[in-house]
Amino acid sequence: MKKEIVSVVLSAAMAASLAGCGSSASTTSSTGSAASSAAGSVVTSTASASPAAESANPGTTDTGSGEGKVLNIQVWNTEFAQRMADHLPGYTAKDPDDPTAGGTIGDVTVKFTVTPTDDNAYQNNLDEVLPGNSSASDDDKVDIFLVEADYAKKYVDADADVAMKLSDLGITDDDLADQYQYTKDVVTDANGDIRGSSWQACSAGLIYNRSIAKKVLGTDDPTEVQKAVADWSSFNATAEKVKAAGYQMCSSMDTYRTYSNNVKSPCVVDNKLVIDDNINAWIDDSKKLVDAGEETSNELWGDDWSKGFFTATPQFCYFGPAWFFNFSMHNDEDGAVGKDGGWGFCKGPQGYFWGGTWICAATGTDNPTLVKNIILEMTTDKDVLKDIAVKDSDCVNSQSVLKELASSDEGNIACLGGQNPYAELAAGAETIDMSNLSIYDQGFTEEIQKAMKDYFDGNASKDAALSSFKKAMQEKYPEIEVD
Amino acid sequence: MKGSGTAAVRGSHRVNRHNRWGYIFLIPFFAVFVIFQLIPLVQTFYYSFFENYMSGLRQVGPNFIGWANYKKLLVSGDLWAYTKNTMIMWILGFVPQIFFSLLLSAWFTDPSLRLRGQRFFKTVIYLPNLIMAAAFSMLFFTLFANKGPINSLLIQLGIFSKPYKFMSHVGSVRGLVAFMNFLMWFGNTTILLMAGMMGIDTNLFEAAEVDGATSTQIFWKITLPLLKPILVYVMITSLIGGLQMFDVPQILTNGSGNPNRCAMTLIMYLNKHLYSKNYGMAGALSVLLFLITAVLSILVFRLTNADAVEKGEH
């Protein structure tokens, strides 16, 4: 009897100590594996060039006298680092092949911290560093961080006050007058103060494969193709024809943003999750198209999804903004459709926008002058913006530059077979409505696509997929009610 | 335990004086244990009664909310679903693991077989355990991708006409997780069981052989009963390890446990809460996990030691 008690106590003690070490171990292993899944890894690139060795470059971006000697920039990919290396006057990149390795502006060292955006990892990183930024040591202070529209509202919030008001930096409304209104709405707080600025206007459209369009519709003229995809019912009818010709339309994940940008309400209202009619329409339309084999359910950015960019495995279209041309379409690779200008551009079923990067000045920065100048150079200087548009096929945030490009050969884009999409893009940028933006959009977008993939693939009923979606939202955002 | 017991029996002053050094040498361990294990463990219990998370950049709580976190976890039913997932994947992996380990260790320790190259095979079966679980999982993810090598092999062999989507079916995802755990751990278990078997007095085997017992009889009547303490140890550690299954399914399903959360384990669920900084809920889940682990461990212990327990009572 005694022996039995002792052994039970011992086994319980063993279980307790193991379970105990399990719960603490799980925290460490979670970070470990998140790092290996590249979801939560933080890659800090350090530019170690000594400031003294750099000769100050006269007549370039003013770094402000007596301010910090290290400019820390939080990013989620190489895009902004590349733009700075290519277009910011006076900036010297340390390694031309790796823009995130940083560089120098005069005697200021520029460091980039890259955190991937997936699964809110980038946001979690910002949440960690921004609130205590003012008390960090000077060389560790975040000076600039970038945000996307999906979660911009969270960081430009007046109460949170982690992004500086542009007016406090000395940037006036006049400086921003040429920008599109929606790009300012995204980063405007409840008091009407603007707390960020973007060089892009990301109105988007439908990018179609010209040769398939010729085969299926008999023409590759953008106005004619637009008629075939002018609304969702004609889009679905065209999908049938495309399938009959032996191709697939696109992935159901491609069409998502077009539906989700045209919702009637934000995805969370009064802390309650709302699944809008247009989201439901996306689910039902996509299920039909996937079942009919007219669309795929490939995840965005995956290998299978990218195959449509190549002539060996083409698909009818992608949905994308201007940054697609340069950033996603593999146009410089052999066998890419875009290499010989095989794409065309039209508005598509509904107007929408996708992405865009806003530059915010972190509260507590020790380089306010330099930050101000970078924001002004990169997002309001017409020469820089035009340079970005011409060299990188980006749709820039300047009404006058886009107007100029629309009527000039400089706006012709090679991968579109020389088509000039700027008039279309500019018209789109003017009509974008940001009123349904919320801080939950990134989580909503990622989770509904993940959950609905199960439904589209036939692994779950619609109800089951919706319920896993709600569970995932609840885990990500404990404060909202999902039912 | 044993050490202090013998010391007490001897009762000599010199031994006691030397014992002091034993305690001094234990201090670093206890200090680390208390700071990094015991205090966090107690805090986990404490914080599980609080509402404590981030909403955007705003900290909510900590507010004392009693049992609300527990209620939410237990009422939603998710906890049971994930416990079931975890147990299914553990059992799927553990059954072949214990079978092959017993078979291999019986062969390796059987002197009459005189297996050649034992050392080589012992090393080989242990090798999968040396690879980091995350890397192993990543490897399988690539191997079994829709357009991966396994699918192209199966198509070329004419077994399938089109790629089988391993990551989109409940059975294949759970099966892969179980298979990976089996591969990683059967070598380790084999070594443990071999140690146990080699500890059995060879006289018993010889006596049984003289009495005319077949090798099957020897295995069931002598080896297994005497191996019980080691078997119980293997069972319980494997069960606890199984309940804490995380890295393999996390990487294989990219953190989602999809399709339809069929491969979501308890620790993956815990990780979801920790990732969104919901410390109160994560604490409550940890406490429940602790209770589940304790109950199952005691259950396994009681079941496998049923004889000993009965003997002790009478």
What can you see in these coordinates?
Chain A has helices spanning 2-36, 79-87, 121-129, 149-155, 166-169, 181-186, 210-217, 222-228, 232-244, 252-260, 277-291, 303-306, 323-327, 368-380, 382-392, 399-406, 422-431, 441-456, 462-476; strands at 43-44, 70-75, 91-93, 103-105, 108-114, 142-148, 197-198, 203-209, 268-269, 272-273, 317-321, 343-346, 352-353, 357-361. With 483 residues, chain A is an alpha+beta fold. In chain A, strands 1, 2, 3, 4, 5, 6, 7 and 14 form an eight-stranded mixed beta sheet that branches. By secondary structure, chain B is mostly helical. Chain B has 14 helices and two strands. Chain B has helices at 2-10, 13-47, 68-76, 78-109, 118-126, 133-143, 149-156, 170-198, 202-210, 215-243, 247-252, 266-275, 279-304, 306-313, and strands spanning 50-55, 58-64. Chain B has a two-stranded antiparallel sheet with strand order 1-2. Chain B is globular and about 75 Å long. The model of chain B is unreliable at 1-5 (pLDDT under 50). At the A-B interface, helix 1, helix 18 and helix 19 of A face helix 2, strand 1, helix 6, helix 10 and helix 11 of B.
In brief, what are we looking at here?
By secondary structure, chain A is an alpha+beta fold. Chain A has helices spanning 2-36, 79-87, 121-129, 149-155, 166-169, 181-186, 210-217, 222-228, 232-244, 252-260, 277-291, 303-306, 323-327, 368-380, 382-392, 399-406, 422-431, 441-456, 462-476; strands spanning 43-44, 70-75, 91-93, 103-105, 108-114, 142-148, 197-198, 203-209, 268-269, 272-273, 317-321, 343-346, 352-353, 357-361.
